[in-house]
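Worked Example 4.2. Read the sequence first, then its structure tokens.
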Amino acid sequence: MGLDSSSTLQDALDQYNNNLAWEGNITKAKNILEAIRYLLVNRGQSLSEAGSNLTFESLKEMQADVKAFVDTASPRSETKRATFTRPTLTRY
């Protein structure tokens, strides 16, 4: 789907729910991983709606599982991404 800064919480939840059967499907895994990341960044402590409850601890656990699958199933070129850290500068 492609969540971005104009996406709503409902967009992320829809993407999450539409990709629950991600096991064995790299496209769905990438979509649900994106939704999980969105929900973790734009969160309170938990979400509740219509009798269901989603905790962010469970999202973090699921994120680790999905990321491990995506890293394993993706071609090598896709898994070599730049990190968001800077190298330590040494003073001489």
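Now turn to a second chain, presented in exactly the same format:
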Amino acid sequence: MQKKRYRLLVDITPKQHMFLNNLPYGWKKQIFGALIDMIIEMTRQEGIKSLSSIISHNINLNNFFQKS
């Protein structure tokens, strides 16, 4: 029996598209999976308000995980 798989569809900028197209095959899935897991952990630790800090560029994931 196969696990149910979900997809994420988002609009991106041309700059983001160029970057993602230059990644080696298979990396996008791994990178986005890891980023989503980090965001889940950040939200678990700091609460939902931490997401607004990411969106407004007041904090990035690197800064957050350095303090953990």
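Notes for the reader: The chain has a mean pLDDT of 87. The first helix runs from residue 14 to 21.
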